[in-house]
Design brief:
mainly beta, 12-stranded antiparallel barrel, about 270 residues, 1 helix
Length: about 270
């Protein structure tokens, strides 16, 4: 009976959630209640104004408090100083406030807030509190899943503050922005589930943009990705981010992502 239950849970989780685990954006769904997700996010982006690539290591730990609320802690480490340098960290909470579920589809809405602190130099007009700026962000996410296809979109307000202790935010560039995303994901394999241990292969494309509210400067990027999910628990992401258009200064807009993700389910039952 236990094996039957695990099989049902695994297949259900794959069918419902696998296409919603995007690489650079969050869906409206949450980490399952009482579960812990560890994500080792890595990126290598080509520098625009000097030779070489900038490597970022951003580990995350996410905990599902209940089915509607999750919290996350992040650390930001980079090689901008030619060695691994701990630049800062951040905290995030997401609350799913609406859910409409059907047999082969669902629609969800969530609100989130994020605060980050950073001590690195401020070197671009783009505002990015995920690894570059001290500041906060708040927004809303909508996600629709129909069979093997997921569509997710978000809009948020983001404000940059001074990077303490040595780098005040410049007065000559805008310190707040509107962010917007649109993501598509499709489960490509397997065609039919027979075991929760089957490997999932997802293809996705994400569009990520920002407009500085003070001066209207904007950018828009595209992020194609391939994702592998093993045993309904472990995940590998490979993605490339390419700038489509930009009217602002960005130090390293184009580059690669490589994420390692693992979920520890139902921690309370294991005590």
């Amino acid at each position: 009976m236990r094996k039957v239950i695990l099989l049902f849970v695994g297949i259900s989780c794959q069918t419902i959630f696998s296409q919603e685990l995007f690489v650079v954006t969050d869906p409206a769904s949450n980490v399952p209640a009482n579960s812990l997700a560890v994500n080792v996010m890595q990126s290598a982006f080509k520098e625009e104004f000097e030779p070489g690539y900038n490597y970022h290591l951003m580990p995350e730990i996410t905990y599902g408090i209940n089915k509607n609320l999750m919290v996350r802690g992040s650390a930001f480490i980079s090689t901008r100083t030619n060695a691994l340098y701990a630049e800062g960290g951040g905290f995030m909470a997401k609350y799913r406030f609406y859910s409409e579920d059907d047999l082969n589809s669902h629609f969800r809405l969530a609100a989130y807030g994020r605060y980050s602190f950073n001590r690195a130099d401020i070197h671009q007009e783009q505002i990015e509190i995920q690894g570059h700026n001290t500041g906060f962000e708040t927004g809303i996410i909508a996600t629709k899943l129909v069979k093997k296809i997921a569509i997710s979109s978000s809009v948020s307000f983001e404000k940059a503050l001074d990077n303490q202790p040595n780098y005040p935010f410049p007065d000559n560039i805008g310190d707040n922005a509107t962010n917007y995303t649109l993501s598509f994901g499709k489960l490509m394999y397997p065609k039919k589930y027979t075991s929760f241990k089957q490997t999932n292969i997802n293809l996705m494309v994400e569009f990520v943009g920002q407009t500085i509210n003070e001066n209207g400067k904007s950018y828009l990027d595209v992020v194609p990705a391939i994702q592998f999910i093993f045993n309904s628990q472990a995940r590998l992401d490979f993605a490339y981010r390419q700038e489509l258009m930009s009217s602002m200064v960005r130090s390293a807009p184009n580059g690669f992502y490589f994420n390692l993700y693992y979920t520890f389910f139902d921690l309370k039952s294991k005590k």
